[in-house]
Design goal:
The chain is mainly β. The protein has one domain (25-218): Jelly Rolls. It has helices spanning 2-19, 177-185; strands spanning 27-30, 44-49, 54-59, 62-70, 73-82, 89-98, 116-122, 133-138, 148-152, 155-161, 171-176, 192-200, 207-218. The longest helix is centred in the N-terminal third of the chain and has 18 residues, at 2-19. Bound molecules: calcium ion (CA). Calcium ion is lined by residues 31-33, 62-64, 213-214.
């Protein structure tokens, strides 16, 4: 009996190992644990504005990315070359510490700042300033979650959290950027090239403080044909 049970377990394990392709394993982008404390994270790079507002900090043994934008803004990216077909979702966690005063992502009052934001940048093979981009925003205003703002032909904001979300507590997010891209751009997305963050307090000339951690790409669910 024990032999038969062992054989059955071995068979199940074999089937699992054969059917699991590499794309079925979540891909960590950054947990910041291997980064130097109080330094800019080594595998990220500045795209716009001030990079020095970002440092790795450690709290109870957990390292995370801290953004401390005082009258400043900065956008940084880390490379993430994946197909949205293989990895359609991104997860991360973040917490807002200080919201920029009077900020409004619609830009109507000239104060387009936010508490925090996470970008998914798609590579459509053109210059770096015209990449299709989804920006998931922690708004300092009361814009409702899920609100979409079209900023340019190739940049959409999705309001993910707002001023009603409790401060200073980690909030986990999971977005399906493949679905969001299809809905907003009306076609299948090109490959992803990078994931970015931007904390932003330059227009309001105030403070935008937030922390980011645990960026991970989630693989597509196996289709019925591969189950
Ligand atoms: Ca961490």
């Amino acid at each position: 009996m024990i032999n038969r049970l062992l054989a059955a377990c071995f068979l199940l394990l074999s089937v699992f190992l054969i059917s699991a392709s590499p794309a079925e394993v979540p891909r960590w982008l950054d947990q910041f644990q291997t980064q130097d404390e109080s330094r800019f994270p080594s595998n990220w790079k500045k795209i716009q504005g001030r990079a020095d507002i970002y440092t790795v900090q450690v709290e109870s043994g957990n390292a995370y990315l801290a953004a401390r934008a005082d009258h400043a803004a900065g956008m940084i990216l880390t490379e993430a070359k994946v197909s949205p077909k293989d990895f359609p979702k991104l997860k991360w966690r973040w917490r807002a510490k200080i919201l920029p005063t009077g900020a409004d992502e619609t830009g109507k009052n000239g104060k387009n700042d936010c508490a925090a934001s996470v970008y998914v940048v798609f590579d459509k093979g053109m210059t770096k300033y015209t990449k299709d981009t989804l920006r998931y925003v922690w708004s300092a205003s009361s814009h409702p979650r899920g609100m979409i703002l079209k900023m340019k032909n190739y940049v959409y904001y999705v309001i993910q959290e707002n001023r009603e979300t409790p401060f200073d507590q980690w909030v986990e997010e999971e977005v399906n950027f493949q679905e969001d891209y299809r809905k907003l751009f009306g076609k299948d997305p090109p490959p992803v090239m990078a994931i970015g963050v931007q904390s932003d307090a330059d227009d309001t000339k105030s403070q935008s403080w937030a922390d980011y951690d645990d960026f991970i790409l989630i693989p597509a669910e196996p289709t019925s044909a591969t189950k």
